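Case study: Signal recognition particle receptor FtsY.
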Amino acid sequence: MFSFFRKKPPATPAPAPVATPAPASPTVVVPPALAPVPPPPPAAAPAPPPAVGGGLIGSALVAPLEIPVAPPVAPERQSWMDRLSVGLRKTGSNISQVFTGAQIDDALYEELETALLLADTGVPATEFLLNAVKQKVAATGATRPVQAKNILVDALTQLLRPLERPLTIGEHQPTVIMVAGVNGAGKTTSIGKLTKHLADAGETVLLAAADTFRAAAKEQLAVWADRNKVEIVSQEGGDPAAVSFDAVSAGKARKKDVVIVDTAGRLPTQQHLMEELRKIRRVVTKADASAPHEVLLVIDGNTGQNALQQVKAFDAVLGLTGLIVTKLDGTAKGGMLAAIAQEKPVPVYFIGVGERLEDLETFSAREFALALLA
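Here is what the predicted structure looks like once written out:
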């Protein structure tokens, strides 16, 4: 279930309701002699027995415990949750082991701090989570480690919540999405998966092969275009900015819903290449004054704390609007999402835990926290 679309069609005013007078009820007059005698009042009902689960302590009635029922999870989303839990096992197992003891004590907190740091959560986020757990344990009087684990799930959800935001499609035509990332992060593959989901949802997509820096990048994107039956704009040895301009112009002329610009992968330390990214952004704006509408960075979950540095560097050049985090199934450093949330909260639109199409999904803070500490 890949329900990230939030189309906003133009609002049409609802017609004013027309008031219709209710039909008059006929009046029936009953002669006093024939008026029915009202029945006697019913006897008082006996007091109901105590609810199941309740009981008496001394002379006070104990009310039954009301356990809220969680809303049912769609089968598709549950399948994704299962894959996410398996994918995050390398990261989560080290943290979950902290809560296998018999009591909550200073040793547990020390182990938890170490486990969070090893997961590349970062010092600021680790301090936030540790303090949140300690305060809630003290406030609730929790004594069992499993209670502390549940408190950590809530604290992590709270920390990650600002990253949870849907990608909006439909406010502009076309919606221009510019995608960047370092080589090997899974940028072009993520574009292909995103294109597939968009096409399956009925969106018309145009791809721009502006990654002229990497060998075979254009061919790889062309395979995705052919597989998804979408159009692609490319040039043999063309300038990336020129390819981007042509693609956005073509998207407007052909009334496409989405134009995705695949830019060249580069390290943030390669200043001349980062300047080329800035140039692509300027040229895209010349083709459409409101574009790009989304600037996404694809980051590899294996990079850990380095991912935070990438987010800061690319945001300084491009002004990021969202992230795609890939390869979370192959890393023990999945805590870096907490570091991003604490220090540079750029929304995470999608996360990936494998190579298959269904292994890329929309991000949910609660699902991630539950899967990490399953």
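For the exam, be able to explain this: The longest strand covers residues 175-181.
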